[in-house]
Amino acid sequence: MRTAATHVVVVGRGLLGSAAARHLADLGARVTLVGPGEPADHAKHHGVFASHHDSGRIMRIIDRSPYYARIAAASIGRQQDLQARTGIQFSFPVGHMTMTNMDGYYSDLVETGDHFGVSFSQVASDDIADLFPFLSFPSGLRGVLESTTGGHIDPRRLIRAQCAALQDTGGTVVDATATAVEDRTGAVQVVTDTGLRIEADCALVATGAFANHHDVLPQPVAFTVQEHTVVFAEVDEAQAAKLADMPSIIFKQGDEIGQSVYVLPPIVYPDAKTLLKIGQSTGQIMHDPLRQITPWFQGTGDVAVAEWLEHDLRAMMPSVELGAISTASCAVTKSPSGRQFIDQFDGTEIYSLLADDGQVAKSADELGRIAAHRVLDGAVPTEYRDEDFAMRYQR
Ligand SMILES: Cc1cc2nc3c(=O)[nH]c(=O)nc-3n(C[C@H](O)[C@H](O)[C@H](O)COP(=O)(O)OP(=O)(O)OC[C@H]3O[C@@H](n4cnc5c(N)ncnc54)[C@H](O)[C@@H]3O)c2cc1C
Questions:
Q1: Which atom of ligand 1 is closest in space to residue 328's alpha carbon?
Q2: Is 368 in the pocket of ligand 1 (CB under 6 A)?
Q3: Is the CB of 36 under 6 A from ligand 1?
Q4: Which residues of the chain have pLDDT under 70?
Q5: 11 lines ligand 1 (CB under 6 A)
Q6: What distance in Å separates the CA atoms of residue 350 and residue 328, rounded to the nearest whole number?
Q7: N or C, which end of the chain is more exposed by having fewer CB within 10 Å?
Q8: Ligand 1 pocket residue status of 283, Cβ below 6 Å
Q9: In the 3-class helix/strand/coil scheme, how is 280-318 assigned residue by residue?
Q10: pTM for this structure?
Q11: Taking a C-beta distance cutoff of 8 angstroms, is the pair 205, 345 a contact?
Q12: Are 7-53+156-222+336-389 and 224-334 equal in CATH topology?
């Protein structure tokens, strides 16, 4: 058990790192959060990238996995407090709908929804014309429509809110990339690309898909990186008004690439454009992330994937007039255990909050809380088990 005066450096100013930093500070630790902002021009950027440089992430509790439902429910349950505390709105509970032709998957969703007391209704393809006349699905599908806890979040604003709450509690945000995290027997030193050397009692590393880059981990961890392509379609004011009631959507016909897509309703982006977004739920495994990840993020995604995504978007919304189409690349990490690595590197004062499994924007707050307790109390909160978050190392 650490004392309240513990100084923790959190490396990675993403969704998980900012959440952990805020919870550490709320628990009484002295916190320095280190991470760069968003690159001005992805194509010319040679530093680290992030999986959250966007304005829309699906929010939902109902999931096939009770664990993912649980961490989402806990995070969504605290959104209002964080929004009120910071004055930053990042949650948009416009509803979420998952449609599927997979019987087992559908029953799992209904079971988790019931188990967690989520407010949802069961829907079928035939209901869609009445509910959302602008949507079109093949016949024979079933789905769940999660009303009050479904919708989308703005990941950039969520990070801004976590950082604002952190700073209000006395924490510090450092705009820099860590080039080394050194264990100093009972202490750590974090070196940054801006020439800083930050000494602290311990470090928590939450550097997302770039965790095995630079010298931020004592030893490489075993997650895979998946390439994701997204397609944006601009909509004008009239089309956006037509889609005012649109929920966020997952359309799942299988677990393989090409069998599942997600769609975000119109969102106003920082450049004032209103964009619909469609993306793939499963992406291609990146074979050599150390070499491939930077060029992947510098690019605009896979052309063939973008083509089928655009085709699927047009098929799902045949009456909607889509304007300019653009594409982007992103990447997620997939955990071999299916859970995050919230653990301590053997014999060091360095901890991890890694392996997002590609779906934890909505659940970042609870994962940050779990990691904060792991660092300060030496164990995850009692409703979870340390062994479920055990690190896996590369062999
Ligand atoms: C296309 C796409 C769609 C998604 N859709 C959803 C969705 O609908 N719903 C959902 O819940 N989740 C979704 N996700 C997943 C979600 O975005 C991730 O789970 C989340 O971003 C992971 O958070 P993180 O903090 O681990 O990583 P990141 O958000 O990537 O943050 C890691 C941070 O570490 C920083 N960093 C890296 N290296 C260093 C270093 N050496 N020093 C300092 N800082 C460093 C990076 O700059 C970055 O800011 C999606 C992801 C993608 C790519």
A1: 1
A2: no
A3: yes
A4: 3-4
A5: yes
A6: 34
A7: C
A8: no
A9: ECCCEECCCHHHHHHHHHHCCCCHHHHHHHHHHHHHHCC
A10: 0.98
A11: no
A12: no
pLDDT of residue 14: 98
What pLDDT, on a 0 to 100 scale, did the predictor assign at position 4?
64
> Do the beta carbons of residue 371 and residue 386 sit within 8 Å?
no
Q: Measuring from atom 41 of ligand 1, which residue has the nearest CA? A: 178
Give pLDDT, residue 358: 94
What tokens were used for 391? 């690190």
Kindly report, residue by residue over 239-284, the tens digit of the pLDDT. Answer: 999 999 999 999 999 999 999 999 999 999 999 999 999 999 999 9
CB 46 within 8 A of CB 177: no
Up-side HSE of residue 25: CA atoms within 13 Å toward CB?
23
Map out the domains of the chain as residue ranges. 7-53+156-222+336-389, 79-150, 224-334
- What confidence tens digit (pLDDT) does each residue in 335-352 have? 999 999 999 999 999 999
pLDDT at 375: 98
What's the pLDDT at 3?
A: 65
- The CATH architecture to which 79-150 belongs is 2-Layer Sandwich (3.30)
Asked if residues 158 and 15 have their Cβ atoms less than 8 Å apart, the reply is yes
Atom of ligand 1 nearest to the CA of 14: 31
